[in-house]
């Protein structure tokens, strides 16, 4: 991906955030950017409530397989240590590796996905949630993982814009 393509993708995200209306507009903008920057057959956003140890899917590109409703308990495992404790991006590039941390690995595999990156979104020292991109096995190469860093600030903006939209 060239610098010009990256800049164009970021400009499109900026325009979508600036003009977007509705609760899903920030997530749709972030999904489009994520797909261009790192690729994502499946894109979801999770929020976290650590006080009650619950995670909630705020947005999904596949509402049939992964509806944006309800909550699930926070899982304390290797994924938790990377994302919640270290506040780093979690990467798994095979379905076997995904299966070690996600009990829904069979659903993930059935959707043609075998790799994942989960990017923590932290504002003012608080983990608000994660941006999750899933694609075919071995998709998240070192180059794509490096480019995923470009999503950090847009993800924060999307979380803030979504919170503002839901408060309106």
Structural class by sheet pairing and helices: alpha+beta
Order of helices and strands: HHEEEHEHHEEHH
Q: How large is the radius of gyration?
A: 15 Å
Strand order of the largest sheet: 3-2-1-6-5-4
How confident is the prediction overall: mean pLDDT?
A: 94
Beta-strand percentage range: 15-25%
Low-confidence stretches: none
Largest sheet: 6 strands, antiparallel
Return the CATH topology.
Answer: Beta-Lactamase
Strand tally is 6
InterPro entries: GAF-like_dom_sf
Protein name: GAF domain-containing protein
Organism: Mesorhizobium zhangyense
Quick synopsis:
The protein has 168 residues and is α+β, with helices and mostly antiparallel strands.
Task: Tag the structure with descriptive keywords.
single chain, 168 residues, alpha+beta, Beta-Lactamase, 6-stranded antiparallel sheet, 6 strands, globular
Textual characterization of the structure:
Helix content is 43%, strand content 24%. With 168 residues, the protein is an alpha+beta fold. The protein has a single domain, classed as GAF domain (Beta-Lactamase). The longest helix has 17 residues. The termini are far apart. The model has no long low-confidence stretch (mean pLDDT 94). This is GAF domain-containing protein. InterPro entries: GAF-like_dom_sf. It comes from Mesorhizobium zhangyense.
């Amino acid at each position: 991906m060239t610098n010009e393509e990256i800049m164009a993708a970021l400009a499109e995200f900026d325009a979508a955030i600036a003009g977007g209306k509705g609760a899903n507009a920030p997530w749709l903008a972030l999904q489009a950017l994520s797909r261009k920057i790192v690729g994502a057959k499946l894109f979801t956003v999770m929020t976290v409530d650590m006080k009650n140890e619950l995670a909630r899917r705020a947005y999904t590109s596949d509402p049939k397989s992964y509806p944006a409703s309800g909550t699930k308990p926070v899982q304390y495992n290797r994924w938790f240590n990377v994302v919640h404790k270290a506040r780093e991006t979690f990467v798994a590039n095979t379905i076997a590796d995904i299966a070690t941390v996600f009990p829904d690995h069979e659903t993930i595999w059935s959707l043609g996905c075998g790799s994942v990156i989960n990017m923590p979104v932290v504002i003012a020292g608080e983990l608000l949630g994660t941006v999750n991109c899933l694609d075919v096995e071995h998709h998240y190469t070192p180059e794509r993982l490096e480019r995923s860093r470009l999503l950090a600030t847009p993800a924060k903006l999307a979380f803030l814009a979504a919170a503002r939209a839901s408060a309106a």
